[in-house]
Amino acid sequence: MIWGWPVPERSLIPIRHLGHRVIESVWRLGVAARFFVLTLMRSGTCARRPHLVIREVFSTGVLSLIIILVSGLFVGMVLGLQGYDTLQTYGSEEALGILVALSLVRELGPVVAALLFASRAGSAITAEIGLMRATEQIEAMQMMAVDPIARVVAPRFWGGLISMPLLAALFSAMGIFGGYLVGVVLIGVDEGSFWSQMQAAVDFGDDILQGVIKSVVFGVAVTVIALFEGFDAPPTAEGVSRATTRTVVTSSLAILALDFVLTAIMFRGV
Amino acid sequence: MERTTLDLWVGLFVAAGIGALIFLALKVGNLGSFDSARTYAVEAHFDNIGGLKARAPVKSAGVVVGRVSEIGFDAQKFEATVRLDLDSRYQFPKDSSASIMTSGLLGEQYIALEAGGEEAMLKSGDRIQLTQGAVVLEQLIGQFLYGKGDAAAGAEGEAK
User: Fold this and answer.
1) pLDDT of residue B157
2) Collapsing DSSP states into helix, strand and coil, what is residue B32?
3) What is the pLDDT of residue B152?
4) What residue spans define the domains of chain A?
5) For residue B136, what are the contacts with CB-CB under 8 A and spacing of at least 6?
6) How far is the CA of A9 from the CAs of A1, A2, B90, in angstroms?
7) Looking at beta carbons, which residues of chain A come within 8 Å of B67?
8) E strands within B32-129?
9) Does the structure show a pLDDT above 60 at B65?
10) CA of B113 to nearest chain A CA: how many angstroms apart?
11) B77-88: pLDDT as tens digits
12) C-alpha A15 chain-centroid distance
């Protein structure tokens, strides 16, 4: 019965279910936002003990180097091959440098590096913190009056934030080198026009700086999602495994959605 | 891992990342190709700039000697005003002429600067008097078609 109308109780179940899920996801979003603000507010420890951050830069940044560099090289080489194939139809192979550089610096560098970062470093962060929760290390810290947000979460956040733009820049640079290898060394596009057309078309403020801004935003998104999922994971083996999966899925979707929003704001000036 | 080894690796990583950014800025982007401190600005008015864009190169004898810094519209004369930043290593006579050219058939547009013969040199804030706007392909085709038509009509008239 709703407002005196005879509605069969069973038909309401799916609608209740939907409402429950919406309320739950909004609630989770709110908790994640408060978690993020709390992390920023408790970051003072990181400034006093920079070695905590350096350790995290090592585990998120340095250990991701191999996958970032190798993927960057191959993405650039594929761009070189595919781009040459298409540009050749219009007789403008010299524009290969522009194509490779712009697509890497603007889009592929930040986005693919962030996707790799999410699956390489983000999942590790979630599993680590989730396991700390499951083995009650977080509670032990609280018992010893050590703030787990300041000691565990904030250093990982800043470490990810520092690593991500550097990894994206390395990815782009490596990709351009890969495009150069395929375009100039292998196929034989004129080296002078490859670089000079690239330099004429790529603007520092418009293209490179905005790519860096993108990678910083992705870095914040991936680390916050990974940290929150880990902190929020149910303290069981299954809970940790689910949280790790959710980190990769959610942060990949967040990266792509944020990429669209940022592109719309920065390049189109919406 | 040992603390010093860790520091070394992180230091290397950060240095490599910053190096990649500098590579992108200097080698891939156009930062540093012209130092704004060592340029002087001159102005030129064109009846039509076509597809010219800010940061397009200014070339003399094919060598890049400056860049377009600003494009505006003069509402009194209904002309385009273009500001050029020229490298102060290169001085041009006051009666030099500027024309908008296209590199290749579909390439980017640039400004070609042709030196004149006067003794006095262009200074910052001067205006280049002799200019030639961009060639609009449609106008060119139109002229060609009408020219053909007129020629055909003339030939018919002579035959009669």
Assistant:
1) 59
2) coil
3) 66
4) 42-266
5) B48, B50
6) 8, 10, 86
7) none
8) 39-46, 57-60, 63-74, 79-87, 97-102, 109-114, 127-128
9) yes
10) 18
11) 898 999 988 888
12) 34
Set of chain B residues whose Cβ sits within 8 Å of the Cβ of A61: 10, 13, 17
> Which pLDDT tens digit goes with each residue over B33-56?
555 567 888 999 998 888 887 778
Question: Which residues fall within 8 angstroms of residue A27, CB to CB, at 6 or more apart?
Answer: none
Whole-angstrom Cα distance, residue A164 to residue A90? 37
Whether residues B6 and A58 touch (CB distance < 8 A) is answered with: yes
Angle in degrees, CA B98, B100, B101, rounded to 5: 125
Token pair belonging to B118: 């006067």
Q: Which of A22, A4, A192, A176 is nearest to A103 (CA)?
A: A176
- B21 interface with A at CB cutoff 8 Å: yes
**Rounded CA gap, B54 and B46, in Å?**
14
Residues of chain A with pLDDT under 70: 1-2, 268-270
The pLDDT assigned to A32 comes to 92
Radius of gyration of chain B (CA): 24
Distance CA B78, CA B82 (A): 13
